[in-house]
Amino acid sequence: MHSAAAVLSAARAELARFPGVLEGLLGGLDAAGWRARPAPGEWAPVEVVCHLRDEEVEDFGARVDVILAGGARFAPIEPERWAVERRYADADGPAALAEFRARRAASLVSLAAIPPERLVGAIEHRRTGRLSGLDLVAAWVAHDRLHLAQLAGTLARTWTTRWAPLRTDYAGPIPYAP
Fold first, then answer.
1. Residue 43 near residue 122 (C-beta atoms within 8 A)
2. Distance (Å, rounded) from C-alpha 73 to C-alpha 127?
């Protein structure tokens, strides 16, 4: 098993880097780029960033808090529903990114105050089974990276679409078929 201190330290470092990676990736987008969907039914960059912003406090941070408090269960979340009800597609991309950055900074302060051994507590999750605080912290980083891959694929597809019929597929397979 991994040491709680090592997991928490590595996760905090990666979680701290992520807002800068997002800003570097999305910083030059215009309003149309923030709202461009790579394919029907897929999220535009603004929706992904709003999702990350809300998950920061309503999923990962909140669930770590439940573990720390010795709670018995996690509150249910519905990210797909949030995207519609909270009108992610209509949000201002740069403002959502700034709010995500602020929420992540607060999360990092909270994580810095946690004694690593307190993260070994676990709660049964209805879908995935028993989750410890360490599982959640490790999954938090994986979640960031999954959405980073999603955003990179979205930007590759929208770039390719913008410059069609140029043969951008020379670069390799472009995610999200046209």
1. no
2. 12
Burial class (CB within 10 angstroms; exposed 0-12, middle 13-18, buried 19+) of 19: buried
For the domain bounded by 4-171, which CATH number is listed?
Answer: 1.20.120.450
Q: For strand 129-132 and strand 122-125, is the pairing parallel, antiparallel, or unpaired?
A: antiparallel
Taking alpha carbons only, the member of 108, 175, 144 closest to residue 22 is 144
Burial class (CB in 10 A: 0-12, 13-18, 19+), 8: buried
The structure's pTM equals 0.95
- Residue 83, phi-psi category: left (phi > 0), alpha (psi -120 to 50), beta (remainder): alpha
**Residue 132 phi/psi, 5° resolution?**
-90, 170
pLDDT digits (tens, 9 = 90+) for 35-71: 999 999 999 999 999 999 999 999 999 999 999 999 9
Kindly report the length of the chain. Answer: 178
